Task: structure prediction
Amino acid sequence: MEVPPPPTVPMHRVGFNDFPTDSDGIIRRNLIFVRSQEGGFYSFALRVVLAFHRASPLVVRAEEHHLYLGQTALEVLSGQAGGYQAVDNRGYQILLRYRHPSSLARQISISQVLSGQFEPSWIANQIVLVGTTAPSLKDQFYTPFSFNQDQNLTMPGVAIHAQMISQLLDAIAGKPALYQFFTPLGENWPGCGRAVCWRQVWPGG
Result:
């Protein structure tokens, strides 16, 4: 369901918050940008990253197979990428590379904020997301971490937005942040290697 932004909010501060969900209910993709006749729609994560880099503005450029954030090229998910050959890959999507939840970001409660129980350095010149982690609000989602535990665990939406923001920041900083796929030709090379080894072991076969 589309919810229009308040009319007083400038467009450069508006971003969509859609989470592409796989058929098994798990969020594995980061939808960053959607091209349109008006120029394009930006994700919430991308808007935050652009605002964070406002001192050295990043130019967003969308090409057929890549989305450029300044000099950083993000190869977008195609219809021939690994296990995503039948997925809806419309828009500019990448596979979401998750940080472990314990190392993602510092969390403080609203009661800590109101009582001043935090260090100013925790928020000064940092990205701060305000959201809820209460399960009762039903803003919880399954992630690749969900089924690696003794029980099914979900992640709140605000934490998934933080994961998406973190991935884009890491990519711009040149840190490992993106998954790479073999091309269709490259995917055949391991099989060729096995065939060569088999012939070497059994020359008379």
